Amino acid sequence: MVRLASRMDTLPPYLFAALDERRRAVEARGVEVISLGIGDPDLPAPPVVIETVQREAARAANHRYPRYDGLPAFRAAVAAYYGRRFGVSLDRDREVLTVIGSKEGLAHLLWAYVEAGDVVLAPDPSYPVYDAHTGLAGGEVYPLPLTEERGFLPDLKAIPEDVLRRAKLLFINYPNNPTGAVADRAFLQEAVELCRRHDILLVSDAAYIEMTLEGERAPSVLEIPGAKDVAIEFYSLSKPFNMTGFRLGAAVGNAQAIAALGRIKNNSDSGQWNAVQYAGAAALEQDPEAFFAGMNQVYRARRDKLCLGLRELGWDVPMPKATFYVWAKAPGGDDQAFASRLLEAGVVVVPGSGYGKYGKGYVRVCLTVSEEDIERVLTRLRDLTPSPFAN
Ligand code: MLT
Prior knowledge:
By secondary structure, the chain is of the alpha/beta class. The protein has 2 domains: about 5-45 and about 290-380, Aspartate Aminotransferase, domain 1 (Alpha-Beta Complex), CATH 3.90.1150; about 45-285, Aspartate Aminotransferase, domain 2 (3-Layer(aba) Sandwich), CATH 3.40.640. The chain has 12 helices and 12 strands. Helix 3 runs parallel beside helix 9. The longest helix has 26 residues, at about 290-315. The model has no long low-confidence stretch (mean pLDDT about 95).
């Protein structure tokens, strides 16, 4: 066998790929499994998305390579949407780039900036892609603990000066995966100021920015005056428009970072299919607010059913104000053991240690199943003997 590159030694299997494998093993034993694992919406994309893809799929012009920097119509729709939604003005050609989902964009951005000896400031717990590609690119993650006491906001003032001197990038992600926490403008302002002072690129992963469950809308980091000098934001169509399978997002903000990401991408992929980009443009142009409000209402009802049901069982879970994730302490304290026990009973939840050291002892429970399936989950958990929820 050919020896793998040594960089593979530190690359763990992707959290959700590993979970899928374990789920399939349980299903092979005849257990019917309900997944509250990956954040993959169960409801369809808006009709305008489906109609547009169908129409554009039939046009031969769309069977060819897309433009490297993305379809102008999609980039223009993103720029117009940022203007309407956040009051942020973006130059479609210099400050917006199509990405094949934020995951791709986030991963490739790290290759443009990080090399041996560089530090990347990343929340812990967080989306595993930040850590994985920092490591592959030879950099080192300095974890910023997200704790309940601080409302799952990192303490930026606690980062030592010598770490700030070596830091190239600071990741923030609000509304937050996996904790469901929200950040206010004051926090975003503090992050922008820190990055301006220390010449750090601020990377805002805004995958859940449309998913607030109590009415208040989440701000974009680009709303902060001067943010564009230091910040790039990833807007994703995956979760808010139920489009995870389409793979579509946009990087917006600092023109130098956009150009650098574009150069890495041109050398690694050939862009997203034009039919999908036309569909994304249509989704953003056609009153997305109403669609988001409807989806957030669905998730709010599911959240209430699940959280109240779990509390009745004796599991004291908090109710998230945003995202479709419930982040709760694992009964018994061992997140891996608890998640394994639930999987054996036909329920997938994600062990928090998969998101970093500070995720240990928590599990993430996702709201992407119907209220009927939530009832079935509650029944399965109620039937566990001995009950893991008994004190
Ligand atoms: C999640 O469930 O945290 C992510 O959406 C999964 C992913 O992007 O791979």
